[in-house]
Amino acid sequence: MYGGAAPNPLFALVEIISKLKDSKGKVLIPGFYKNVKAPSKDELKAWKRLPFNEEKYRKAEVGSKVLTGEPGYSVLYRTWARPTLRYMGCRAGLWRWERRR
To answer: What is the model's pTM?
Structure first.
């Protein structure tokens, strides 16, 4: 009824979310990484000794064609020592109308 004339809140949200990370996965919020403590040398050595297979993890655990995250960090480092920014979803549009069907 108001399409093309009224602002769409979902599109505004999409624009905001799209600016939270760069194309490589780095969070762009100022100060986001400020108090992140790096793992110790001993922790990093211990991680390297683990029987971890990145390809198996991608296929069996994540179920994705690719793994994402900041370049320069291993999967274990990104998973265990880097902060993440996640968006878990929202409801928008005609969800109430669809529920009445």
So the answer is: 0.73
- pLDDT for 89 beyond 60: yes
8-31 per-position pLDDT tens digit? 888 899 999 999 999 888 999 999
User: Contacts for 76-84 with beta carbons within 8 Å, 24 or more apart?
Assistant: 76/47, 76/50, 76/52, 77/39, 77/44, 77/47, 80/39, 80/47, 81/36, 81/38, 81/39, 81/43, 82/36, 83/27, 83/32, 83/33, 83/36
3-state secondary structure of 27: strand
